[in-house]
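Justification of computing resources. Each target in the renewal requires a structure prediction run like the one illustrated here; the chain below, 463 residues long, is used simply to show the kind of job we budget for.
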Amino acid sequence: MLASPAWRLMRVCGLALAVGTTGIGAAAAQGSTTQGSATQGSATQGSTGARAAKPQYSLAEASSANLVTTPDMARLTFDLTQDVESEAFVLTGPDRVIVDLPQVDFNLGSDAGKPAPLPEKHAKQASVVESFRFGLLEPGRSRIVIDLGLPARILRSAVEKTGDKYRLVIELAKTDRASFRQAAQGRQLPAMVPAAVISSGISPTAAPVSKAVIVLDPGHGGPDTGAMVNGVVEKTVALDFAQDLAKKLETAGGFSVVMTRASDLFIPLSERVRIARAANAALMISIHADTLTESGEVGGATVYTVSDKASDAASAKFAAKENAADASAGLDGQADAADVSDILFDLTRQETRAYSHVFARTLVNYWKVAGRLNKNPQRAAGFIVLKAPDVPSVLLELGYLSNASDSAALTSAAWRDKATSRMAEAIVAYFADRHGVEKAAAGIPIPDPGAKLRQAEAGAALK
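Resulting structure tokens:
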């Protein structure tokens, strides 16, 4: 028997999560340095999503970054406003250097993260560092991720003070593969886990039961930038689009909107799924904008649904890339939630995927008026973020930053206004077809294919 209707229990790291709540992961690396006496900031989750609250202490700011790299060494520096403690270590799969810091405000240009061209004599050789990323990993904790072109050892990671100026200096040197692997052993990070129950402001009494909860999931965030082309950054494009769409849905009425993030914050893939399930979402939309290095001609929007077998090789490759988002931020992969009942799980998943396909078709039809579609606009692959068994979910690829026409549209406020308006209309049409306008007006609850599965999960959690 279930507890109070204001609560739904989830078996997530032994925590009981309130409906519509989520914890932003906070598992630190093994052996990490204590980050001073600063009080860790909190994260808030509401109709605007997970947002990093301002910590109760002065943040260090990074005003510039500089990378010098050769086939034998690399030196990465960040100019800071104050001293910070840092911990640097290496990880494999892929090869990278992780530098953990207290929360830092990175006031850097969108092109930061790319190394300067190698001198002509080294132009054809691999360099120690290919690129680097940075951002807010979780409230109170920032991270720099350095992608390696060659195995490297860390010579130093420390802050130098000159007068009243501070500079974080990270120096690397080329090493052999065996030494690199040995240094990485035992330093693989545990998966981030919810460290706190954070109120979302959404509860069974916060809105009429006839309101559909829509979860908007702007892809990437924090040190996981996503695609970057000519100063245009995927994580920013996705967030801007999601915020505009949220406003359109709230104006339309009849919806409660939850965003997985409402700022430049990293959210693990499995946590995005948990947010949707905890909110009892009727629909989840993950928003992205990719790039293709091999071709600038490919463009247009694509709508993906989840499938055990990819619809084509390109979709399988794209899903593998997106499923590596946690590794991009320096985390290990997340384990899928255990099935409560194989039969019930399969039945629920089958119905949920059917609804996902219906919405995908609806969105493609409405998008034709708003913008270009890819030549194959409806595809499927094994995206982790779409694997909630009880939440119809799609991934919308807005377009390709590598395509000049797409990039111009994705950075245009006028295009975004038009596209989000049509998308809001598609969402309204989907629920009208699924539920019926008269039923919605009468307050009859929206059909919930995952209700029985969640009841089974809650019962199992109470045992």
